[in-house]
Amino acid sequence: MLTKEFEAYISVDVETAGPNPSQYSLLSIGACMVCDPERTFYVELQPDKDDFLPSALTISGLSLGELAEHGLPPAEAMARFEIWAKEQVPEMQRPIFVAFNAPFDWMFVNDYFHRYIGHNPFGHTAIDLKAFYMGVTGVSWEETTMHHVAARYLDGRKLTHHALHDALDQAEILREMLAEAGHFDNEKAS
C-alpha cells in the first residue's frame, strides 16, 4: 500500500544557486503527490542572496535576473507550498517529504520554511530515495546514483533538472520501488 492510513507521500525536488542555503538561494520547487502525480505544485522564487555557482545555473537553466523580476518572494512561495500541501493531504494524514538525495532538497526546503513562515509543515520527516533504493536492492552506496536508478525504474530516462519534472520522476521511482518491495500495486493505482 502506497499511502498508509496516516501518511501521504509528497515527492519534492528543488533547483538552487549553489550547495547550501546559508550562501545560495533556493530558485524553484516542484512537488507532486506520489499516489496521484497529476496533483502538482511548482514555483520559482526570487533569489534572496547574490552568490551563485555558474554550474548550478547552467544545470537548471534558471536566471537570477529573470527570477528577481518574475519569481515570487520567498515568503509567498513557501506559504503557497504549505497551502498546496495542506490541500492535498487529508486532515488525518501527515505529509511525508520524499526526494532523491533528500538531504540536499530537505536542507533548502526546511531552511526556507523556517526562515520565511516560521515552521515546516513536513515536520522532521523525509524519505531519501537513494537510501531506500540501497535497502530495496541491496546495492552499495556507489550504485545509488541516478544513472543506476533510472536504468532500473525510468527506462534510462535522465533527470531534466526542472524541479517539477524531476519530482514527477521521483514519484514514479518510489512507486516502482514500493511495488518491487511488495508494498504497492502499480496496476491498482493506475
Q: What's the domain count?
A: 1
Low-confidence stretches: none
- Helix/strand-derived class? alpha/beta
Radius of gyration: 16 Å
Can you list the strand order of the major beta sheet? 3-2-1-4-5
Distance between the termini: 13 Å
How much helix is in the residues? Answer: 40-55%
Name the average pLDDT. 93
By CATH, the superfamily comes out as: Ribonuclease H-like superfamily/Ribonuclease H
CATH architecture: 2-Layer Sandwich
Provide a count of the helices.
8
Shape: globular
Strand percent estimate:
15-25%
Instruction: State the CATH class.
Output: Alpha Beta
Total strands: the figure is: 5
* Main sheet characteristics: 5 strands, mixed
H/E topology pattern: EEEHHHEHEHHHH
CATH topology: Nucleotidyltransferase, domain 5
Fold topology:
Blueprint (H helix, E strand, L loop, with lengths): L6 E10 L9 E8 L6 E5 L9 H7 L3 H7 L3 H15 L5 E6 L2 H16 L8 E3 H9 L8 H8 L9 H18 L5 H4 L1
Parallel strand pairs: 1-4, 4-5
Antiparallel strand pairs: 1-2, 2-3
Helix pairs in contact: 3-4, 5-7
Short description:
This protein is α/β, with parallel strands linked by helices and 190 residues long. It is 44% helix and 17% strand.
Explain this structure to me?
By secondary structure, the protein is an alpha/beta fold. The chain has one domain: Nucleotidyltransferase, domain 5. The protein has helices at 54-60, 64-70, 74-88, 102-117, 129-137, 146-153, 163-180, 186-189, and strands at residues 7-16, 26-33, 40-44, 94-99, 126-128. The chain has a five-stranded mixed sheet. Strand 2 (26-33) and strand 3 form a beta hairpin. Helix 3 (74-88) packs across helix 4. The protein starts with 6 loop residues before the first strand and ends with a helix.
